[in-house]
Amino acid sequence: MNYPLMESGQFVVRLFKYSGAILLLVAATAKIVSGLGFAEVLKQVDPFFGMQFGHLMLVVGILELAIVANWFFSSSERFGLLPVAWLTTCLVIYRLGLWQIGWHGQCHCLGNFTDSIHVSPQVADNIMKGVLAYLLIGSYGILFHQWWKNRKLAVGRSQLETQKS
């Protein structure tokens, strides 16, 4: 049986798009809901941005929702993936910065949402690291593949034009 969608790599791209969008949507929703809560951890001040974690979570959650909407409704795969790659790069830099200054707390990525689903903050932190890695590697991998494919096409066209001359 022939599956043209799988042969062209579009199956992998669509699978990543929908799975990644769902993961980012869940994370964004958890951040917004938690950011609106009253847990003590939300009153702590973020060491980089100097604002309470609750406010930071609201801002990042809304940004993530906007990126999910753009990704889901974008007619261009590249313009849908670029903000995802940008966001994940920023989150990796943020986490590396926290590590660099010796901050050893768990990421408050899901706020107090972990309490309501009975997951320890350490487990939630590890899950979010996995989600971050998935989105980072997937978005850059697909963008690089598209760039490489377009580059090969451009080189091929250039060679054909040279041969015709």
Mean pLDDT: 85
* Shape call: elongated
Radius of gyration in whole Å, from Cα?
A: 20 Å
Largest sheet: none
Number of strands: 0
Helical content stands at: over 70%
Give the helices and strands as they follow along the chain: HHHHHH
Low-pLDDT windows of residues: none
Total domain count: 1
Q: From the helix content, strand content and strand pairing, which structural class follows?
A: mainly alpha
End-to-end CA span? 42 Å
Amount of beta strand: under 5%
How many helix segments? 6
Describe the protein:
- Helices cover 75% and strands 0% of the residues.
- 24% of the residues are buried.
- It has one domain (4-164).
- The radius of gyration is 20 Å and the shape is elongated.
- It has 165 residues and is mainly alpha-helical.
- The mean pLDDT is 85.
Tags for this model:
165 residues, mainly alpha, 0% strand, elongated
Please write out the topology.
Elements: H1 4-7, H2 10-35, H3 53-73, H4 77-100, H5 113-116, H6 121-164
Helix pairs in contact: 2-3, 2-6, 3-4, 4-6
TL;DR of this structure?
This protein is mainly α.
